[in-house]
Amino acid sequence: MAKGSQLSQLKTALSQAGVNRSHSKKKKSTPLTEQAKVKKAAKLREIQQKLNPFDVKVTRPKHDVGGRNIKGMIGRPAQSKQAGMQQREHVLLKEIEQRGRVGGVVDRRFGENDPSMSLEERMLERFTKERQRASKASAFNLENEDELTHYGQSLSKLDDFDDILLPVDEDEDEGGQLDHDTVKKAHFGGFSDDEKEKEDELSPRARHTRYSSISCTSEYSMRRWSTQMRRQVENEKEENIRHELDQDFDSLRTLLYAPDPSSIDHDTSAKLPAPATTNDEDTMDYDKQVRELAFDKRAKPKDRTKTVEELALEQKEALEKAEKQRRLRMFGQDPDESDDEDAAGRRRKRPRGGDDLDDDLIEDESFGGLGAGLGAELDSDASDGDESEDGSVDSSGEEHSDEEVDFDGFGEGSQSSIDEASDSDLEDTTETETKRKTWRSSETLRASQELPYTFPAPESHDEFLLIVESLPDSDIPTVVQRIRTLYHHSLGPENKLKLQNLARVLIDHILYIASPPSPRMKLLSDLVPHLFALCRSYPAESAEYFVEKLSLMHKNLKRGLATGALEPEARTWPGLSELAFLRVTGIIWPTSDMRHPVISPARLLMGAYLGLCRVRSFADVTKGLFLSSLFLQYEVLSKRFVPEAINFVMNATLHLAPHAFTSARSLPGVFPCPDLRSASCEPLTIDKSKAKGLRFRKADLVHMQSKIDALGLALGLLERFADMYKSLDGFIELYEPIQLILSKLECGRLSEDIQSRVSSLQDKIARLLKFALQSRKPLLLQAHKPIPISSYIPKFETNSSSYLRRQDPDRERNEAAKLRHQVKQERKGAVRELRKDAKFIAAVEHNKQMEKDRVYKERMNKAFSSLEGERAEQKAMEREKGREKRRAGRK
């Protein structure tokens, strides 16, 4: 092969093979024969194969054996790929194009697909259906026509038979007689001998078919006639019922139009004349009754369900309106009169009366506080003369009563009106003035004592204290609810930040009201739902503030432990407000999560309190018991094991109940008890001589002063923890020491209530331990099928040749291996072909989409070009008009 580009190589190969033909004008090319054409095609094919060496792929075997042909050694990937593409275009592409298309001829004749019917039955049924179809489409049905017709014309309008295109025999006279064929065909035949002869010529099968068709036709006609008769009877019944209803309609109208005795409306329906009854001589016309029905009341549509935003806006507007009326009442104004506004939207000035206190001088709707209008009272006396003209009554006098006119004159201090008034009028005026002043003073006092309806959004806890400092505890939740309503997040983008600040303020206020010496737990319970709603709306911001409070409590704990856990002035145990905060935390946030940004730090902090703090007084015991009960509430769902809580409850029992243990070493189990029999814990033990008649009461954290109540709480916690942890694997190791300690408590000299409580707890723990021992099973080896010892017998092959490696002495096993190998190869080939088919289908779909896009683009370009042309013409026309206008202006 010559060197150079493929084009030069192709030219050289064609010239050497003598295939290229000269294009000289002098010599004319001679046509090639068939043999020459075949040779030329073979040479071209050979040149093509030599020109592109990648068209032929040769796989050389490792061991060449002479005379052996291995299938697949020489392959032509390009040709095979082209052949595959052509095959898919002929088969797969046609299937894609004809997908979803219903073609071909479908035989829908009656009985064709019913194998149970014979050929004669099919023909008979088809003939019957055809006759039925023809009878339905008959244009000369005499049953439904009023007069007889012939060829679409009435027979009564025909004078003779010359115009109806009926042939007449030439042999007959001109008497207008019809020929024999016409009478035979149109007048039902004459039943001649020819008909009998033709009927005799029919075969028995044909005669049977003919008579069967006639019987079927007659049966169908009878069935149709019976159906029509049944429908006619039903229509007559319905008509009779309708007639009866029309006759009884007057009596029904009296019931429909009966007046309502509870309420008589003066609308249009009440003004209608009374309906006619059956006793009237002239019954009302039906059309008149229908027109009267148009005046009946129709059902009004219900209001649609409002969205959350619309409800929030409605509640806010209601609060603002109520607050506006309260302020007006507080300043002695009438809200109904003050709400009147003119068309310009400004407030009308109310005419001044004799008892006016000049306290309605607020012209706009803004309110500057409780003392905003007090400065105007200083100048009221000096401005009475100037305001008298503005506050006088109109000349018409239609809007105000006589009493108001007298109040105005008296308020102005007119001496002439006083001289002219009689004594009785003066007394009435004074009495009315006194009543009005009394009413206004009472309204002002009541409005000033009424809870406001609008409040500013507090930015800090100090601002919130300024709002609620003079309010009772029962009104503070109402204040919070109104603040949440006024600053709903859907009413403004800045309200979201205000509600987040409100959540922080409520957390601080909960700590504030739970602080001693007078904790307000009722108010705390009322504020928790509002805080819960805010935390649910803004969980991330609220959780961040909760974590800040927990971090501060942890810092206080570390500071107290650094001072000394046994020092009396060290603040190690949490205060009452901190305990309330931990209780609120468990209410608001989910305590069953494995990890939670708020509950997990709170759980660790409570564990640190119970595990690191030392008992110094009875208050420390109560706080520890409260934390243990909090743990019980936290873990009621997740049932996590909290050893600090059980350890402290058991130590509290040892501190309070009398027992015989002298030191911590004598205690069973491994629970630490560093404060047992210490100097600070000795006074905590219950005195046997004083506890003879005492009983357990309900424990209260705020007012718990009795050791008996604390002991009852500790025993109850031990019982509830046992119920919660009875399913643990280590329940036996956990509660066996507790059972031994309870059995050695010296409760013999205590009250019967305490003794029965301790004994019942011992019995319950013993029963739970028994069940735990019964359910516990020792560890066993894994029960499984014995594994046989592996055999290492070498595999001997009689034939060591590589091409005989698949030969197996066992013929069946060898055939099975060959079949498995063949299935594997076929599966690979099928997967390969499916991938090629999918690639081909994707290419076809892509080409179709490209063609659609091209056509759409051409259409859009054409539309845009036409629009641009029209726009250009419009602009040119506008420029021409502008030039003409400028010329006209210059002229």
What can you tell me about this protein's structure?
The protein has a two-stranded antiparallel sheet with strand order 1-2. Strands 3-4 form a two-stranded antiparallel sheet. The protein is extended, with a radius of gyration of 56 Å. A hairpin with a 2-residue loop joins strand 3 (149-150) and strand 4 (153-154). The protein has 891 residues and is an all-alpha fold. It starts with 5 loop residues before the first helix and ends with a helix. The longest helix is centred in the C-terminal third of the chain and has 80 residues, at 811-890. It has helices at 6-17, 34-51, 77-90, 92-97, 119-136, 180-186, 193-201, 204-247, 249-256, 286-293, 308-330, 335-338, 384-390, 402-412, 415-420, 423-449, 461-468, 476-486, 495-513, 521-537, 539-563, 576-588, 599-612, 618-634, 643-656, 707-725, 731-743, 752-775, 811-890; strands at 57-58, 74-75, 149-150, 153-154. It contains 29 helices and four strands. Helix content is 56%, strand content 1%. Mean pLDDT is 76; it is low at 161-176, 263-279 and 341-427. Helix 5 crosses helix 8 and helix 19 (495-513) packs across helix 22 (576-588). Among the domains are: 309-337 and 403-453, no CATH class; 455-613; 632-776, no CATH class.
Query: Cα-atom Rg, whole angstroms?
Result: 56 Å
Number of helices in the DSSP assignment: 29
* Low-pLDDT sequence parts: 161-176, 263-279, 341-427
Approximately what portion of the residues adopt beta-strand conformation?
under 5%
Biggest β-sheet strands, sense, barrel: 2 strands, antiparallel
What would you call the structural class? Answer: mainly alpha
- The overall pLDDT, averaged over residues, is 76
Strand order in the largest sheet: 1-2
The shape, in one word, is extended
State the helical fraction.
55-70%
In angstroms, what separates the terminal alpha carbons?
A: 89 Å
Number of strands: 4
Protein name: Nucleolar protein 14
Region (Disordered): 1-40, 52-87, 170-213, 257-285, 322-443, 863-891
Subcellular location: Nucleus, Nucleolus
Organism: Boletus edulis BED1
